[in-house]
Amino acid sequence: MESLTPAQKTAVTKSSTERLRLLLLKGGYAEEVVLGWTREQLMSKYAELLAQGWDPATAVRAADPEVEKMRLAHEKEMKEKEMEMKQLELEVEKQRKEMREKELEAENQRKEKEMELREKELEAEKKRKEMREKELEVEKERKEMREKELDLKKAELAQKERLEAQRLEFEREKLKSETKLKSEEIDMKEKAQNDEMKLIKRYGDALTQVLSPQPDEVTDLPAYFRGVEEQFEKLKIPNKFRARLIYKYLSARARTLCSRLEPEVRDDYDKMKKAVLKEYGLTAKCFLEKFNTMRKPFHDTYILFTSKLRGLLLQYLNARKVSSFDEVVSLLVADRVKSSLTEQCLKHVLSVENNLPADGKQWLEPQRLSEIVDEFISYTGVSGTRASYIRSNTKCRRASPVS
What we know:
403 residues, 0% strand
């Protein structure tokens, strides 16, 4: 190192460990030897090369092409890391500068606050002096006030007695007022209850003219309930009365079911209707089965037949929670795909649908359905005869009398 020029010494000391290794590799040292040296050894060997007049800029090391390629890649990586380090240093310097500015700003704010506190202390000292002068005056007045306080205490005692008497009188009046209000509230509740009974009777009389008892045919229930709801809307019957008004038109089986329901379910028309439909086993698949297989009875008109079909389809769409045209299209496509599946594949799809969240749609969109079917076929290789999903052998249960 002593024989080197200042510039060469600087080049040796400022070069990174990786750069020293690359330079020594150019100088002809074996790679496994260079990698085993420490930084001090690398610096010493590089200084020896420079002392011998070796110029790293003109040195060409015969090396294996693969090793040279790796070396060049390593040099590129090291340069990128040096650039990143420089960028980080610039960012750190910028942050330090910002921190210094913030510290100066905080120092200025601290000094301003100290000045404000000093001014407040001077002002407080001035006020304390004024207060001491006033205290002397107050002390003098205090002596005069002590004599007056005795008179005031007597007056206060008399005033307290008067106030206590007034308070007791107020409490008595308040108690009377509360008793009167409670009595009026009870009267109003009784009146409202009587008015409610009158409304229920009036609505019940109106429904008697337009409603018929619950039909025996199970699949007629959706159309029946739809007709009941249309009459509710025409007569503008509030929701809170509907469950009680429809009760007497239900079958014995349905009334027995309602008597076993919780009050919050029994008194809510929508919840009560859902419970009745569930009791009769009216599922989405049953509605679709009946819609596709229903035939017009000989004595029914086509108006009645159309109404039944419409009720079944609407109930099917409601059961599937379909509310838009796009959802109707998706549901029809999904049902059509299911109708082409084998029995084993269809069971797999239905098991997936049964595990869907209860508060959402209980059927798969066509895209997801196709993915599940393709995955099933790819795993099992099952394909062949088709099972009809729409025209399955499942039959809708009919109403049976309550024993």
